[in-house]
Specification:
The protein has three helices and seven strands. The chain has about 100 residues and is of the alpha+beta class. The chain has a domain of about 50 residues. Strand 6 and strand 7 form a beta hairpin.
């Protein structure tokens, strides 16, 4: 990849509609080889997933991710009504309880 690789800049969506433009060299410093996104590309390749859960691309198990991720989620709003949204969210208790990132 040479010099072309060093010039790559990624646009990363942030909560609140903001975008961070980060050079690949900066991102490479933070690579965690053991981490996998629950809402990553592997999810789209699966035929069946548990409702509101994601398939761990490494193990194939259904999981509740505890880190903040951007993706489709179901939650209950402050009035007790079920909602569905594409938002930054996490499941901090490792179950269906969902926290939505709101600024």
């Amino acid at each position: 990849m040479g010099d072309t690789h060093k010039n790559l800049v990624f646009s990363i969506p942030l909560p609140g509609g903001r975008v961070a433009r980060v050079p690949i060299d900066v991102l490479e410093q933070y690579v965690d080889p053991s981490a996998r996104l629950a809402h990553g590309a592997a999810e789209a390749e699966e035929d069946v997933t548990a409702h509101s859960m994601s398939v761990d691309p490494t193990t194939g198990a259904s999981i509740w991710h505890t880190d903040w991720e951007l993706g489709q989620c179901d939650y209950t709003d402050e009035n007790g009504f079920p909602q569905s949204a594409y938002a930054w969210h996490r499941h901090p208790l490792g179950n269906e309880y969902t926290e939505i990132y709101q600024k």
